[in-house]
Write a structure and sequence with these properties.
The complex is a heterodimer of chains A (262) and B (78). Helices cover 69% and strands 2% of the residues of chain A. With 262 residues, chain A is mainly α. The two termini of chain B are 25 Å apart. Classes of the chains: A mainly alpha (262), B mainly alpha (78).
């Protein structure tokens, strides 16, 4: 498709997408660009939703409280009860927050005024993964004591003694480095790639339909159709990535609580 | 054979998901850790052989670790 790149006037999306110009407080530590404003706005919105839903809870829920309860029940039944069991209930606030925050931040990628998911910039997935790392390590240490937690994590049972020299460094890296790293990269890469694809399809469609020669315009229609289909796919991905992030956090918490579970 | 077809899965979906990513992390982490150690030894001893040796050893150790943790769950772990 040398046409798309060779012609003057079409600018394919690049990583510049993720560093838009500053909007407020430029030059200071609190510099805000479009993406950070979206992140702040969405965070505020999600917090307000849950605060309003449970501000004056009734025994028989109505209205916003009903929606809030459905939201919490989803995480409770499908993630906490399935993975951790009854003792996981105390992690429900963290897991509900994690799930709905990631879901809302992901979904802004396909919503018209925003059109970019703040989770496609590395800081957010990194901070969320760091929070999960802190929570599961703190839980493991609190439940089992530091020595016991490290022993269960780093020294799998049933290994002849000298082989531990080989295996323990791998276990260390796998648990304390790769878990937060894969959480971060999985969320970041999915959102970044999805956003770049959407921008490519729609900017390609507008360029082909408006500025290309007449016998290429048909490709513009195809590009727009692909953009539409991909938007639906991104909706699925938004939900799935939030679900997987929260699910894996619950799995790590279950491992920290019950090291010999399986 | 007939009765095993109707058994519920040993693990829930979430644990399965956790297992998959844990296996991937182990298979990546093994060569990475021992490759890094081999690279460090190479720098100190001015050789060039320990990096590939480390990567290979790490990969084998990672395979063993995956087998240990997930390949024989019928028996030992409780």
């Amino acid at each position: 498709m040398s046409l798309a790149q060779g012609e003057t006037g079409f600018h394919a999306p690049s990583l510049q997408e993720f560093t838009p110009p500053a909007v407020l407080f430029e030059g200071t530590f609190f510099e805000l660009n479009r993406i950070r404003l979206i992140a702040l706005f969405v965070t505020l919105l999600v917090s307000m939703f849950f605060v309003i839903a449970f501000r004056r809870p009734q025994l028989v829920p109505r209205g916003v409280q009903n929606m809030g309860e459905v939201a919490i029940d989803f995480v409770r039944f499908h993630i906490v009860d399935e993975i951790i069991g009854a003792e996981g209930r105390r992690f429900l606030p963290y897991l509900v927050t994690l799930f709905f925050l990631i879901l809302s931040l992901n979904v802004t990628g396909i919503m018209p005024p925003f059109n970019i998911p703040p989770t496609s910039v590395v800081a957010l997935p990194l901070i969320l993964a760091a929070c999960t790392w802190l929570v599961f390590n703190y839980t493991g240490i609190k439940e089992q004591g530091l020595g016991s937690y490290l022993k269960h994590t780093l020294f799998p049972p049933g290994v002849p003694l000298p082989i531990y020299l080989l295996v323990t460094p791998i276990e260390f890296v796998s648990t304390f480095v790769l878990r937060p790293a894969t959480l971060t990269i999985r969320l970041l890469a999915n959102m970044m790639a999805g956003h770049l694809m959407l921008v490519l399809f729609f900017s390609g469609a507008s360029y082909l339909l408006l500025e290309a020669d007449v016998w290429i315009k048909a490709f513009g229609v195809i590009s727009a159709a692909m953009g539409f289909a991909f938007t639906l796919f991104e909706l699925l991905v938004a939900f799935l990535q939030a679900y997987i992030f929260t699910l894996l956090t619950a799995v790590y918490l279950a491992g920290a609580l019950n090291p010999h579970h399986h | 054979m007939v009765e095993s077809m109707d058994e519920p899965p040993d693990r829930s979906f979430g644990e399965g998901e956790g297992m998959v990513w844990s296996v991937i992390a182990t298979l990546v982490g093994g060569p990475a850790v021992w490759g890094a150690i081999g690279y460090g030894v190479d720098k100190l001893a001015h050789t060039a052989v320990f990096l590939p040796v480390g990567v290979t050893v790490g990969f084998i150790a990672a395979l063993y670790l995956v087998y240990l943790k997930y390949g024989r769950d019928q028996s030992s772990q409780s």
